[in-house]
Fold Ubiquitin carboxyl-terminal hydrolase.
Amino acid sequence: MFPSPMELLRSHLARVRIPEPTNRIYKSECCISFDTPRSEGGLYVDLSSFLAYGKEYVGWNYEKTGNPVYLRIQQRPKPVPEDRPLKKPTLLAIGVDGGFDYQETDYEETHNIIILPDYVSLPFPSVELPEKVRLAVDAVLIAEGAERKEQLSAWTAEKKKVSAYVMNLQQINSGVVVPPSGWKCCKCDKTDNLWLNLTDGMIFCGRRNWDGSGGNNHAIEHYNETKYPLAVKLGTITADLEGADVFSYPEDDTVEDPLLAQHLAFFGIDFSSLQKTEMTTAERELDQNTNFDWNRIQESGQEVEPLFGPGYTGLVNLGNSCYMASTIQVVFTTRAFISRYYEHQSLKMAFAMATSDPTLDLNMQLTKLAHGLLSGKYSVPVQEKQEGVPPRMFKTVIAASHPEFSSMRQQDALEFFLHFLDQVERVNSGKPELDPSRSFKFIIEERLQCPSGKVAYNKRSDYILSLSIPLHEATNKEQLEAFHKMKAERKLEAKDIDRDEIVRPRVPLEACLASFSAPEEVHDFYSTSLNAKTTAIKTATFATFPDYLVLHMRKFVMEEGWVPKKLDVYIDVPDVIDITHMRGKGLQPGEELLPETGPDGDVEHTHLVASEDIVSKLAAMGFNYLHCQKAAINTANAGVEEAMTWLLSHMNDSDIDDPISHRSDAMELQFVDETSVETLISFGFQEDVARKALSASGGDIEKATDWIFSHPEASTSADTDATSSGMQAGDPGVPDGIGRYKLMALVSHIGTSTHCGHYVAHVYKDGRWVIFNDSKVGASVDPPKDMGYLYFYERIGG
């Protein structure tokens, strides 16, 4: 005789837990897939672990854990009345009360208790259920889901902060009375974009925009002369003073002035009768879709055909997560990542290998993301568009070791790409043959020649080729000269330049690649031949060519005063490039290596000393002094910009805080315990690598193992191998092949800084260009190839 459903449930009460406040409860998304309560069959919450599973996957959890009791949550759409009224937004927000209403479907939610393996169902709520089950389910339903705790579902504009200069603002009574209209800049004829200084009542025009529009910088010039801190934008003042645009120059931000009524009254301004005639700074930022770059990169205004199916799944923006979405869409177009996490790893396989909490297992979440993007399961039309998948769990686990990526702030796509590859390499450290990140890895060979004529060869590994942009190589110099002449004339006439009149430099990619290979001077180079610091000549070439070559365009440079500036430039990028000529040849006949010891016989390692000029300038920006020294040394004292690029890319290296050592290998390795060396050799590591690792880790075997996995370049003998040929990588984990590549993708950026604005990806697949703009996926009409921030090239011919 079979037990009744209630008797079956009572027999499993020991496997039911009542969640505590500290428990993470998942009830919105499956931890193996992107299934939700709205998916076919609903979502099953394990009443022991509080992890959620879709109908197709809950059986796997039962097989793995034996947990039999689940709460099934199902959401079904309610019928929509035909006369449903439209809601007018009253708040600049998405997904909150008063925000924009996208006429989303309302859903009815139902609950059942399900007992596996036979999927026996019991209704909930029901007074007949055991009290422990009722308490457990009530606690699950009332609790705020872990998904919501980890990622805000609404994207609301940041609240302005009260300025520190408001309460003690000293206003000067110089007889100024501001009229209700007819304003004009005190220094020019500007009648719009005007700012009233709240200290002396003077009116000046605002800042000049990058395209020549806006003001003539007279307001900020007045601040630089007087240091009067606050100004309010005329035309934004109305009876609702909260909407007024108040700017603090010393805080360099839009601020709140709770005493604005009092400050305005000082100059005779009756704000109750004023009408709004100007956009605030925030509104201008929101209005940037009218900007040419914004439209061009997002292909706004184009008839972009929506695409659906396998490989055409969008990613939901979690709030300033486009830097992640654009990069991930490109990465999961490469054969290496498709093979590793989709074709050769099933969801069930990844789940079986995962830890007890698969939401925190990177391998599981990478596999989940790959299947979500590539299977086509979630790329279906919903009201002529697709919803995309939300990469919340992936973001949580990939950002665990990087607090900035855990935040809701915009980040640098390049920095995320490097962090992502680093994490993928670590999770595959025990099986490098499966590591897809190595398809991006390559070895750079650097040749240093000192005035003695002797040379040294060094090697280093990297994932990206960072290229400076030589503006002097622009191919449209005549048009640029004419534009700058017209711009100067318009400035004298106090006239703006139309967007369609703007001319930008066009620099060929070939010129950028040539600048990388060009000889450059390295100052403060210690020569063991001369036994002194000197200036050496450095050239860089490729020791290996990667499967996928990633080019980073240095569009952000430092102006005078160390103010970051974005270069307003186009890069003419060919679809096919051949960099075979950039391969290094290693030590050549007739070349003599710099000696390992100086003339006095002391053991002296040929090394660089960090340029104090570079280090001091980086340290003045707030970077750690030791990190600045390492950045200067690792970029061969090439300059502040190069050192900063290296520093931003290596801030999370496990050895970034290790002291700098210039001792020779002989001195470094002579105190290593031989038993520890043999232990590491038994693990399959080479003897010289084992000695280096133990030396760098204080003899600790566990730390030495971590050091080897985080320093794959160690096996290339990068710091001592001066005789190896450039044709030999020295590292079996680094691919090599011919140097011909075709453009497969680009990531473009809109905005004044890598930490603000928006990122969009364009990928060439199935014979056409496709735009990935968060959850929007469509056939590209005009891919902005000349506006890329990151370019991805794929090797031709394998």
Summary: The mean pLDDT is 82. The longest strand covers residues 532-542.
